[in-house]
Write a structure and sequence with these properties.
- By secondary structure, the protein is an all-alpha fold.
- The chain has one domain.
- About 70% of the residues lie in helices and about 0% in strands.
- The protein is built from 2 helices and no strands.
Length: about 70
């Protein structure tokens, strides 16, 4: 959204103006799309870190379990 737009200070007018904007391009969504894509990328980075930690934990658990099995024999 454009930061200098006069309707941004009046949400009700902004809403009314967007309803009557039939082409749907009253406000620029470019900044929103950039912010949204950055947020999604950040979320996936966090998911990747969590998956990596889970995989490392699983590998550690499996190696400890194999050691336990060797000592039981």
């Amino acid at each position: 959204m454009a930061k200098n737009h006069p309707f941004l200070n009046r949400p009700i007018l902004s809403g009314i103006a967007s309803v009557f904007s039939l082409p749907g391009n009253y406000f620029s969504d470019f900044a929103f799309e950039q912010d949204d894509s950055k947020a999604l990328a950040s979320d996936w980075v966090i998911v990747g870190h969590d998956l990596n930690k889970a995989l490392e934990s699983f590998k550690e658990h499996q190696s400890n379990r194999q050691l336990e099995l060797k000592f039981d024999e």
